[in-house]
């Protein structure tokens, strides 16, 4: 993207956000005009009206189960205007790691355009702070299996829906250096081979790499953990100019062999640098000296991976990517110098119509650090009516056929950019751990694990990954926390960790229930190394994409396969004695 068009993009953003209220009205009008014939809208008696008042009066708030019957009809081949005026030709699969099965969502050209608008905006602001010249990007991205539904509609992840469209590639060329790896690697059928080749291609073009990217922080950490294990094989491939036998997929072999030439000097240099690193600290800038930053989604459930990612990134800044979901986009990161823990997202008022449900904490539950609250809800307010410091649930109306759709995300308004709010992502709204009156979310679980993890730091150990489960087969029920550790810890340390976890859940309902023994002692189960890798492989076998994989922080009892993997790999178990035996 030439400098002038970066400035143009910023100027356009400034203009749109100065009058966000009017832009919102225009955007809703445009969405409703395009989709005036949609059966969903007419079912509620909207009948072609496009003003905000009629829209809010006729159309109720919705969740996925409300639109599911319509999406199912689209998947079965019904081409009448159901959710949108034009027929939907693609569906996106959301990551589906929550309930163990993916959800279908509509995907169309308009959503592709809003994606490009968001990406171009954040790129323009990023490039102002960290200019990158012509070069390449080391991208850990993976296409996923494409499923054709009964009715002949292509269903795949939102990421794949984007990457397979020429219009997207064209739009992205302007704003980011091209990917080091050929398409065959991105769309390869075997994730492990694709990852190996992403690393190899990244090393071949190491001097040209200006940025390192993956959709999620988890994929970046996973890539460099893999690098620790395979770097000597990669060096051998580069030295001899011959691709490892590990790569067996013909299309990947052929594409990578074209760019792999014997280069002993590069192999020696990589070897020297790897040998000189202390516990892999700063491996990214050491091997990719011209990289300016590391980029990917780093908020919410990705926060636990930041410590490890900072270790690999050394002095390079971590920049959190934009805020969206398979359902649609919410905001762009226009303050790229903020660390991921403080990042905010400015809402682009032309990309959808946004409402916010004000959430108030009940008076007796004022503890700030607990996300585990049954909030009191008020009527939704518009984009420009939100108040700084307040928390809300996001409701979106998109160009892709979702109307007043509750995203289930809790955000805090950190401030305004002109008249559009800058949002901080707090957590997913859905409860994670609950047995009776206790209520704990993913954020509470994360805080508890961080607290107990401090006991491991003294032992030079780290938590590779974690998840949880509610064990209700015994009475009283209890929380089970699963940990995979970097290496073995003593029984004493792990007993202390179990007690620390138990005490770290400060939700009043949990503490009260533990005291009167209506919830049993928390159980910490230690897993074999490689368990979460096995869960990832299971997710991929269901047709998921690595770029979308999020470790499930809570395993639903219906997700039998994942529970089997966890139980089969449990090596030790420790019960808390924090509330007495």
Automatic annotation (TrEMBL):
Residues 443-556 form the GH3 C-terminal domain. GO terms for molecular function: ligase activity. Keywords: Ligase. Belongs to the IAA-amido conjugating enzyme family. InterPro entries: GH3, GH3_C, GH3_M. PANTHER family: GH3 DOMAIN-CONTAINING PROTEIN, JASMONOYL--L-AMINO ACID SYNTHETASE JAR1. Pfam families: GH3 (PF03321), GH3_C (PF23572), GH3_M (PF23571). Residues 345-428 form the GH3 middle domain. This is Jasmonic acid-amido synthetase JAR1. It comes from the Eukaryota. The keyword Ligase applies.
């Amino acid at each position: 993207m030439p400098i002038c068009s970066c400035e143009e993009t910023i100027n356009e953003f400034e203009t749109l956000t100065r009058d966000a209220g009017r832009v919102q009205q225009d955007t809703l009008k445009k969405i409703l005009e395009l989709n005036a014939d949609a059966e969903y809208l007419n079912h509620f008696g909207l009948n072609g009206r496009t003003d905000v008042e009629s829209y809010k009066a006729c159309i109720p708030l919705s969740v996925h189960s409300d639109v599911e019957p319509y999406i199912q009809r689209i998947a079965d081949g019904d081409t009448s205007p159901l959710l949108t005026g034009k027929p939907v030709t693609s569906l996106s699969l959301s990551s589906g790691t929550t309930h163990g099965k993916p959800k279908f969502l509509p995907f169309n050209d308009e959503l592709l355009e809003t994606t490009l608008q968001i990406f171009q905006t954040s790129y323009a602001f990023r490039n102002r702070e960290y200019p990158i010249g012509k070069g390449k990007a080391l991208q850990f991205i993976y296409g996923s299996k494409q499923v054709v539904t009964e009715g002949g509609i292509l269903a795949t992840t939102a990421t794949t829906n984007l990457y397979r469209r020429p219009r997207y590639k064209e739009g992205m060329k302007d704003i980011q250096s091209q990917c080091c790896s050929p398409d065959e690697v991105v769309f390869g059928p075997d994730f492990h081979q694709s990852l190996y080749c992403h690393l190899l291609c990244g090393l071949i073009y190491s001097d040209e790499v200006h940025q390192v990217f993956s959709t999620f922080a988890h994929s970046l950490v996973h890539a460099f953990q893999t690098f620790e294990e395979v770097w000597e094989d990669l060096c051998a491939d580069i030295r001899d100019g011959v691709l490892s036998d590990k790569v067996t997929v013909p299309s990947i072999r052929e594409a990578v062999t074209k760019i792999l030439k014997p280069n002993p000097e590069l192999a020696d240099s990589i070897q020297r640098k790897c040998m000189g690193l202390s516990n892999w600290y700063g491996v990214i800038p050491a091997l990719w000296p011209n990289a300016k930053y590391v980029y990917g989604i780093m908020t919410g459930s990705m926060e636990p991976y930041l410590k490890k990612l900072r270790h690999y990134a050394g002095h390079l800044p971590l920049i959190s990517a934009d805020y969206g979901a398979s359902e649609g986009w919410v905001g762009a990161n226009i303050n790229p110098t903020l660390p991921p823990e403080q990042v905010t997202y400015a809402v682009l008022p032309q990309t959808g119509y946004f409402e916010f449900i004000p959430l108030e904490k009940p008076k007796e539950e004022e503890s700030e650090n607990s996300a585990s609250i049954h909030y009191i809800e008020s009527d939704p307010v518009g984009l420009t009516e939100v108040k700084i410091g307040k928390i809300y649930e996001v409701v979106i109306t998109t160009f892709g056929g979702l109307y007043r759709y509750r995203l289930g995300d809790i955000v805090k308004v950190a401030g305004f950019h002109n008249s559009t709010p800058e949002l901080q992502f707090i957590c997913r709204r859905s409860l994670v751990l609950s047995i009776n009156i206790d209520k704990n979310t993913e954020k509470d679980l994360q805080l508890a694990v961080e607290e107990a993890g401090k006991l491991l730091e003294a032992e030079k150990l780290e938590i590779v990954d974690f998840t949880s489960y509610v064990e209700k087969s015994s009475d009283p029920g209890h929380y089970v926390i699963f940990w995979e550790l970097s290496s073995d810890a003593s029984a004493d340390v792990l007993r202390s960790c179990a007690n620390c976890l138990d005490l770290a859940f400060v939700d009043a309902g949990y503490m009260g229930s533990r005291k009167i023994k209506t919830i049993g002692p928390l159980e910490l189960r230690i897993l074999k190394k490689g368990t979460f890798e096995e869960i990832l492989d299971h997710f991929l076998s269901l047709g998921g994409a690595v770029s979308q994989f999020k470790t499930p922080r809570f395993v639903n009892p219906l997700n039998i396969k994942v529970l089997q993997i966890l139980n089969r790999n449990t090596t030790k178990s420790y019960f808390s004695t924090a509330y007495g035996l």
